[in-house]
Q: What sequence folds into this?
């Protein structure tokens, strides 16, 4: 078989040149993007901070004595009230003498958990809904799209506020609110991709050969529609962190006793003019995570752009 015939066959089967090149092509192209590498490093640092905080909490609960809080216990109050940044307290202290840096490190765990679990649950429900609606059409598509249209009419923040108001405060309820708020986003995106993919020649040929609907959706349609969803998930993750911070800032998030980025900002409201560090550092942390997530998402989008790939390979 000639190279032209092989390329045409692979195009009909929906195979990507990127898949054949392998992981090394992705890694090399990703490493050339300085913003993406910066974002990845920042996110890894925050994930490590969140993981260490969880281990430190379990260690304190079981009194193992392996690790300790860094640099202080986020709940311990001291006598150094509203102290500015120093060597001992790089981010200063709040009105109760608690170390702001320790509270921000501890808050990373809550933000990461809320964003990760909330979006994972939303994807597990929204993606199948979108696939089924686009593939079968008819009354299935009509029911799913009417639900999406109703939810799409309200901003995610309003939906989350309403759900938290109904179910109350708590980490589980915030995760549940984010889960319900983003179902329609995943369903709408995946539906648009499946509508285009299901009309491809290789899908029509597979259906003519008697391939079952379940196998078509799982083996062929879903893998080809997933890359854009992965890219958008990074954007949704940043939005979920902002949503959790906003809810907690308004007193509608997790318990006030749990240190989060939103609660640290909320505690700083009476001291905006007298203690600048209380609001500045939490705001910078949230900004860095959101920007880093967007940088990673932009890089993933470029990696899945065929034109970008072709130009990098050919040197055009």
A:
């Amino acid at each position: 078989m000639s190279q032209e015939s092989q390329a045409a066959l692979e195009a009909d089967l929906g195979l990507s040149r990127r898949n054949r090149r392998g992981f090394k092509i992705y890694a090399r192209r990703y490493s050339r993007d300085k913003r993406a590498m910066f974002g990845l490093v920042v996110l890894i640092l925050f994930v490590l901070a969140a993981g260490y905080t969880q281990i430190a909490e379990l260690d304190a609960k079981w009194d193992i004595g392996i690790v300790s809080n860094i640099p202080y216990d986020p709940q311990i109050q001291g006598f150094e009230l509203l102290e500015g940044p120093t060597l001992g307290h790089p981010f200063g202290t709040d009105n109760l003498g608690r170390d702001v840096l320790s509270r921000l490190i501890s808050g990373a765990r809550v933000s990461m958990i809320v964003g990760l679990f909330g979006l994972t649950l939303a994807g597990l429900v929204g993606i199948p809904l979108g696939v089924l609606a686009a593939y079968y059409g008819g009354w299935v598509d009509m029911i799913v799209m009417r639900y999406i249209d109703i939810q799409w009419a309200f901003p995610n923040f309003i939906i989350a506020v309403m759900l938290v108001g109904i179910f109350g405060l708590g980490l589980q309820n915030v995760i549940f609110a984010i889960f319900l708020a983003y179902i329609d986003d995943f369903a709408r995106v995946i539906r648009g991709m499946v509508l285009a993919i299901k009309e491809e020649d290789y899908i029509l040929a597979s259906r003519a050969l008697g391939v079952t609907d379940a196998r078509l959706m799982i083996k062929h349609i879903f893998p080809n529609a997933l890359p854009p969803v992965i890219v958008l998930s990074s954007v949704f993750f940043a939005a979920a962190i902002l949503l959790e911070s906003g809810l907690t800032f308004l007193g509608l998030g997790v318990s006030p006793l749990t240190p989060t980025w939103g609660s640290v900002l909320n505690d700083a409201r009476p001291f905006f003019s007298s203690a600048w560090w209380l609001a500045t550092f939490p705001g910078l942390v949230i900004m860095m995570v959101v920007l880093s997530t967007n940088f990673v998402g932009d890089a993933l989008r470029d990696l899945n752009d065929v034109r970008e790939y072709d130009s990098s390979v050919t040197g055009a």
